[in-house]
Amino acid sequence: MDQAHALLLMRYNAWANARLYDAVGRLAEEDIVRPRPSFFGSILKTLNHLIVGDRMWMGRLTGVDSGHRRLDEVPYADFPSLRVARENQDKAMVGWMERADPIFIAETVLEYATSRGEQCATPVPLVITHMLNHGTHHRGQVHGLLSQTEVAPPPLDLIYYIREQ
Known about the structure:
The chain is mainly alpha-helical.
C-alpha cells in the first residue's frame, strides 16, 4: 500500500464517519441509546466500539498507549461528546497519515499485543487496511440500525467520496 492510496482511504473514512454522524445526529438521544438487536446492542455502543478500535490501532501504530483495554468500552455515554471525539479522532488519523514515514507505511511489521494479550506481528499496510475495513464494517452495522428509524441512512460508498473530490 503506498502512502497516497492510504491517505485517500483515511480521508474517505473521515468523510464516511461525518456523513453517518450527521444522520445519527438527526435522531433523538433516546433513539441513539435504545437497545436494538445488534452485536453491540445500540447505535451509541456500536459507534463507541469503532472509536475505541481506531484508538487502539492508532496507539499501536504511534507507540502511544490509547488507554483502552476492552473493545466493548463505552467512553462516551452521550452522542454529542462522542461526535466531538470522532471528529478529533478522524483529524488525528488523517494528520498522522499525512506525516507518516512512507517507508514505515510500506515496509514495517508492527509488533503489538491484542486486547486479549496475544502477541502479534502484522505488516503495517495490512494494519491500515484492517483499520479502515473495520470502520466500513461497523458503519455498515449502524447504517442497518438507522434503517430501523425514521432517519434514512446516507450513501457511504467510496465512489461517492471520489466523485465529490
